[in-house]
Write a structure and sequence with these properties.
With 258 residues, this protein is of the alpha/beta class. 40% of the residues lie in helices and 16% in strands. It has one domain.
Amino acid sequence: MTEVAKSPPERDAPRAGAYDSRPKQLSPFRRAQIPIISGAAYAFARIVGPTLRYEVLGWQHIDRVHLQNRLCVYSFWHQTIFLAMWWWRHRGVVAMTSGNFDGQILGSALERLGFDTTFGSSSRGGLRGLSALARRLQQGHDVAFAADGPRGPRYLAKPGPVILARRSGCPIVGFHAYAEHARIFHKAWDLFQLPRPFSRVVLVIGPPVEVPDETGRDAIERKQADLQQLLECTRSTAESWFSLSPAEQERQRAIWNG
């Protein structure tokens, strides 16, 4: 599937890994900044987004989940949020963001792009954020959140996606997106990437990770390791994509689209 790739059809609208649904209380000045900064981010997305040229590998995995009348728990590294949110805009996806200042800015920008949002944090107590996502899955929405969010460590999957998949019975669909030309924010904990206009983008989607209704920490940790391996595999493919020869790209397409 190449971009020529079109966006998907629209859909109706415990430990350090715990998630909390309460937004942080901000000062009036900080609250006033949120619509201004998120509006600027949205404007940038509306200008740059339409110029991006996506190639998508592995989209059949999502089609198969939906053809089974099931929903997806999308999981990805925080670095790729911009590219992900542009691809999945206006598709009925519910995204979880941190309740801190940066997370509320991101949430506001996501809502402008047609996402619904709920707050969650890996640094505050409770599982209310995951409970909110579980309810949205029951209501018929795919959900999404960064496996290493909201503050890292970078490229280290937390147990949240696995806990949610086990609770809901919905599979985890991991992916990574990478732009051929982008500004990388090296001082940001996630090495956030902001694509340059007209850049080519590759989006690599891995096979679903099923989480049976097993109990015990060992089962969760095994599936968490599976997710870690999958996300690193998609990242490795995506980040090397534009340096591959045409013949090797064809070979990789056959593997990922098979």
